[in-house]
Amino acid sequence: MGEPYPKVIAHDLTRAFGRGPRAVAALGPLDLTVAPGEFVCLVGPSGCGKSTLLRIAAGLLRPSNGTLEIRTAGPRPAAMIFQDYGIYDWKTVQANVRFGLDVQRVPRREADARAAGWLSRLGLADFAHAYPATLSGGMRQRVAIARALAVEPELLLMDEPFAALDAQLRTILQDELLELTQALRTTTLFITHSLEEAIVLGDRVLVMSARPGRIIAEHRPPFPRPRTGDVRATPEFSALKSELWDLLRKEAVPA
After folding, report:
1. Residue 78 CB partners (closer than 8 Å, separation 6+)
2. What is the DSSP string of the chain?
3. Among 22, 60, 41, which Cα is nearest to 189's?
4. Cα–Cα dist 53/133, whole Å
5. Coiled coil located at which positions (predicted)?
6. What is the per-residue pLDDT across 12-69, written as a single tens digit (0 to 9) for each?
7. Integer CA distances (angstroms), 178 to 29, 68, 151, 218, 225, in order
8. Which domains are seen in the chain, by residue range?
9. Residue 243 contacts residue 236 (beta carbons within 8 Å)
10. pLDDT value at 76 more than 70
11. How many other CB atoms sit within 10 Å of the CB of residue 133?
12. What is the gyration radius of the CA atoms in the chain, in angstroms?
C-alpha cells in the first residue's frame, strides 16, 4: 500500500492585504502537505503570516493566489482554538463545550453526553455549570480545547493557544495536549513562538521566514511516539532547540 493521501495540501499559496502599490504581501508563496494524524508545528518571527495561514485553513480568509485543500469526509472538518480562548462569557462551561454540537444540530441528549465526556476528560466536570469569568486562564483554555474536540474534527487548528499562560501552567497543558493528540491522532496544525513547545508536541517543526512567510526549514524531533514531556531533559532536545533558534534569529534580525 502507498502513503495515505495528505489531509492538507497547500500549493503556491499567497495572501496579500490591501490593493495596488500599498498592498502588503503577508504570506507565501508556500507549499505544504500534512499527513493524516500528523502534528505539525509552525514557528517563525512575528508578522510572518503564521496566523494568516491558519485562518485560510479554517476558511476565515481566502488566499490571494494558489490553493489550500483539506481532504476530509465530514461537512465540518476543522476546529480552531485561539490564544484568547474564544469562549462565550454568557454561556456556562457545559454550554460552551456543547456549542459546536448545537451548531451541527446534534440531538441535545447526545450533545450533553459528549460535552460531559470531554469535561470529565479535561478535569472540568465540577465546573460544568460555572461561567468562564470564574475560571482561571488554564481552565478557560481547557474549555476551548474541549469545545474543539467535542465536534470530533478531522483537522485541529491551534493559534498560540498557551501563549497567555504562565510557564508552569503552559508546561502542564502542553503535556495534556500531547497525551490527548497522541490518543486521538487528530491531524493538527499548531502555531507557536515557543521552540520548546514545538519540539515537545510536533511530528514536524516547520520554520517560516520573515514576511511574506515561506517555509525555509523542516525538522523532525528525534523522539518516538508515544512521547512524554520528559524529552525536554535530553541532549537531543537542547541541540534541536539551538538549531531552530539559529534559524529564527537570522529571520528576526534585519540584515
Report:
1. 57, 58, 59, 70, 72, 153, 154, 155, 156, 157
2. --PPPPSEEEEEEEEEES-GGG-EEEEEEEEEEE-TT-EEEEE--TTSSHHHHHHHHTTSS--SEEEEEE--SSSS-EEEE-TT----TTS-HHHHHHHHHHHTT--HHHHHHHHHHHHHHTT-GGGTTS-GGGS-HHHHHHHHHHHHHHT--SEEEEESTTTTS-HHHHHHHHHHHHHHHHHH--EEEEE-S-HHHHHHH-SEEEEEPSSSB-EEEEE--S--SS--GGGGGSHHHHHHHHHHHHHHHHHHS--
3. 41
4. 31
5. none
6. 999 999 887 888 999 989 999 999 999 999 999 988 889 999 999 988 899 999 999 9
7. 31, 26, 19, 20, 10
8. 1-77+154-255 (3.40.50.300), 87-152 (no CATH)
9. no
10. no
11. 8
12. 19
Are the CB atoms for 28 and 81 separated by under 8 Å? no
Q: Indicate if the pLDDT at residue 128 is higher than 60.
A: yes
Quickly tell me which residue has 512524554 as its cell: 228
For the chain, percent of residues with pLDDT exceeding 70: 95
Sign of the CA dihedral running 254, 209, 156, 242: negative
Residues paired with residue 33 on neighbouring β-strands, in sequence order: 9
Model-level pTM? 0.90
At what angle are helices 137-150 and 167-184 packed, to 10 degrees?
10
Peptide bond into 153 cis (omega under 30): no
Is residue 188 a contact partner of residue 171, using CB atoms and an 8 Å limit? no
**Placement of cell 533558534 in the chain:** 245
